[in-house]
Amino acid sequence: MVEDTPQPDADPPVIEGHLPVLTRQVLELLSPKAGMVCLDCTAGLGGHGSEIVPLLAPGGRYIGLDVDPGNVELAKQRLAGAPVRVDVAHANFTQAKAALGTLGVDAVDLLLADLGFASNQMSDAARGLSFNAEGPLDMRLDPGQSLTAAQLVNELDEGALADLIYQHGQERFSRRIARKIVDERHRSPINTTSQLAQIVRRAYGHSKRGKTGGRHRRIDPATRTFMALRIAVNHELTSLEGLLGALPGLLRPGAVAAVISFHSLEDRLVKRAFVGLCRGGSAQKLTPKPLVADTDQRKTNPRSRSAKLRAIRWIG
Ligand SMILES: C[S@@+](CC[C@H](N)C(=O)[O-])C[C@H]1O[C@@H](n2cnc3c(N)ncnc32)[C@H](O)[C@@H]1O
Questions:
Q1: What is the helix (H) or strand (E) element at residue 152, kind and residue range?
Q2: Which residue in 80, 166, 240, 315 is a FRET match for 264, CA 20 to 30 A apart?
């Protein structure tokens, strides 16, 4: 942990339903200071950004990226009037180096990636991310990309669908679910969240190890299948690998990079990449174990319960 760390009393209040996760821990690790350049790879609703930006003054700079043009606009609005230069761009963080280049920045002092989706995306039924709301099976965070969840569900062959649900959702009933999806789509295409959720629930059926038993019992049977499709549609794991592989070219010596992940597949990639950089002597681990939410944060922000924060200092 770094000295001279800003210590906010608690996470900032909810803004339009959005509460950034692990804000206190992020600020402690990054320790933003006047004149620093911060790259926020996932600007979202500008929640973390709004805490970081004032600490970069005078003379610092905040650059935010997001694949969702709607969130780019919301982050811009949230950060308007900042005491430092703020640029928020529509870009995938795999393109971070190019995005920095466009803004005339070679490397940064602080890098944050708060992975996955934002609360406004999950609650927007039209995006089809939630099995709790009727909507199209879309799931794209970037509406400009062509691949949708409906395409995967209706076009992948049964084996590939089962593999996707197993590998990205860690769903042990993946084969049964894929079979049921293929049976159902022969009758009519599966185009909505509720159609898919019902099919998955029926595939679980009365399994003793399904909804009524085992470690899965507290979650809706559709949870893992929806997560798998979202990860696949948005290329979440390959994008994360791309970002982690690009870190050496993004960070100045002494820079801190912090990544918040929300499931074990992401966390494993972050852990491995950071271990590799530290073993090679290019970086120093700042979090021997991932930081997690404290009791208050878990209470006020349920999403923080699965958040894991890892950070390194780049030596170069
Ligand atoms: C958890 S939210 C970030 C919230 C933000 N830290 C805040 O406090 O408001 C994740 C955001 O990252 C964006 N995102 C997801 N994958 C991305 C990628 N590969 N490149 C850029 N943005 C991405 C999503 O669109 C979403 O807005």
A1: helix 149-155
A2: 315
Instruction: Return the structure tokens found at 304.
Output: 């923080």
Cis peptide bond prior to 58, omega within 30° of 0: yes
CATH code, domain with 271: 3.40.50.150
pTM above 0.85, yes or no: yes
Q: Does 262 contact ligand 1 (Cβ within 6 A)?
A: no
Determine, yes or no, domain membership for 16.
Answer: no
> Cα(32)–Cα(155) distance, rounded to whole angstroms?
47
Angle between helices 222-233 and 193-204 (to 10 degrees): 130
Are 78 and 112 in a shared domain? yes
Span from the CA of 21 to the centroid of ligand 1 (angstroms): 12
Domain count within the chain: 2
The residues pairing with 50 across neighbouring beta strands, listed in sequence order, are none
Alpha-carbon dihedral sign for residues 149, 153, 157, 160 = positive
Atom of ligand 1 nearest to the CA of 141: 25
Containing domain of residue 140, as a range?
124-233
CATH, residue 182: 1.10.150.170
Angle, in degrees to the nearest 10, between helices 236-250 and 222-233: 50
| Residue 177 alpha carbon to ligand 1 centre in Å | 29
pLDDT tens figures, 254-287: 999 999 999 999 999 999 999 999 999 999 999 9
The residues that bridge with 66 in the sheet, in sequence order, are 90
Q: Judge if the beta carbon of residue 67 lies within 6 A of ligand 1.
A: yes
Contact of 228 with 165, CB cutoff 8 Å? yes
Same structural domain, 30 and 168? no
In a domain, residue 17? The reply is no
